[in-house]
Amino acid sequence: MATAASASPGALGAKTPARGPSARHAAPKPTPAFARPSPRRAPAPGRPRASLHLGGAGAGAGVASSSSSAAAANGSGLHVPPAIAPLALPKMAGAMGTHKNVVLFYCEEMRELAQQVVARNDDIELRSISWRTFADGFPNLFISNAHSIRGRHVAFLASFSSPSVIFEQLSIIYALPKLFISSFTLILPFFPTGTSERMEDEGDIATAFTLARILSNIPISRGGPSSLVIFDIHALQERFYFGDSVLPCFESGIPLLKSRLQELPDSHNITIAFPDDGAWKRFYKQLQHFPMVVCNKVREGEQRIVRIKEGDPRGRHVVIVDDLVQSGGTLIECQKVLAAHGAAKVSAYATHGIFPNNSWEKFQHDNGEGPEHGLSHFWLTDSCPLTVKAVKDRQPFEILSLAGPIASALQI
Q1: What pLDDT, on a 0 to 100 scale, did the predictor assign at position 289?
Q2: H-helix or E-strand spanning residue 338
Q3: Which of 22-31, 198-207, 334-343 has the highest mean predicted lDDT (pLDDT)?
Q4: Within a 13 Å sphere around the CA of 124, how many CA atoms are in the beta-carbon half?
Q5: How far is residue 70's CA from residue 80's CA, in Å, rounded to a whole number?
Q6: Pairing with 37, which of 8, 25, 110, 263 sits 20 to 30 Å away (CA)?
Q7: Which parts of 6-80 fold into alpha helices (H)?
Q8: Burial of 19 by CB count in 10 Å (0-12 exposed, 13-18 middle, 19+ buried)?
């Protein structure tokens, strides 16, 4: 008669014992390194049974009783394991219901905007830098209590308003990620070399690409590559100038404009105008629920004249939208053309007001006398702090602050 071992073909390493008298004197088998499963009785004839084992060795014992009960309940004979609780996932910074505490440094030009950012979010802490110079004019910089930002999320609010202030800020930008911080974010609202991205003749220098390469080499922090926040970069292809060592985040000031337009008493009568096809390509998707007018420049002899390409401004409050303004000549020509075609009012918006050589002085307020006399509103953001100081309390200018969008971007 066969022993129990011989009746259990599923036993690991089991051999059929010798038959006959010598079997009772056989040497005992050594204990295996791993426990073997208990022998099971063969299923009753005509009643197949299936078993499902999850969780590896030893798991079957823990679920035997519950699975047997489940099998009995559904009558299928299938052993169903008990429900397994999902793994607890760690909370990520910026996720719903969580907050990221950020230490915000800033250059002196951005002091006022930095203070407004902190006022928008209690999770942002403002820290200053000592901006000193040596006798030869080179920067002598100092970050006080540098050890206290170890393990913290750190950001720097920069303004590259002129080449003379870029080097000292780059020195800070390259130093902060090396102070054992958890992550680093550079906020550069205006990418200043954006208009210098073309190489049309041999010898042209694309300074936009040069600056992008410099920013792409910001050292990584303990949390990985640095993040870079820019608003309405001038040429869309410039986002591809940045290397893989930095994470550029491209934001827009257009939501600020849309919110402001909703507050106007004639918000139902707004038409958006673009000074050229480039502005239309950039912004029309964000403003497509407004009627639109598209202008373009045509050459007549030695002059380039602005004309309406499509759309009707008659009787409407027309808002000219562009990413930046420098001399303002094109905007003024658009204003004149729209007024000549029957616009009731003309206003303008530009995310970045550059205005070299005080060119903002060209823009006059209409004083309610019609678009032939000037603009009803000229909205700018505070991405260029020197312009903000120059046009403060001067009509038709009004500043829309980037403080809210920057505070939100720091929580990403």
Answers
A1: 95
A2: helix 329-340
A3: 334-343
A4: 25
A5: 7
A6: 25
A7: 59-74
A8: exposed
Give the H/E segment covering residue 271: strand 270-274
Neighbouring residues of 117: CB distance < 8 A, sequence distance ≥ 6:
104, 124, 157, 403, 406, 407, 410
CB 134 within 8 A of CB 186: no
Count CA atoms within 13 Å of residue 42 on its CB side: 8
CA within 13 Å, CB half, 177: 23
Both tokens of 150, joined, read 């170890």
pTM value is: 0.75
**pLDDT surpasses 70 at 157:** yes
Q: Is 61 helix (H, G, I), strand (E, B) or coil?
A: helix
- Phi/psi of residue 216, each to 5°? -70, -10
Assigned token pair, 138:
């080179």
DSSP strand pairing (397-400 vs 378-381): parallel
Q: What CA–CA distance (Å, rounded) separates 185 from 102?
A: 10
Query: How far is residue 176's CA from residue 11's CA, in Å, rounded to a whole number?
Result: 64
**Closest to 186 measured CA to CA, from 220, 150, 148:** 220
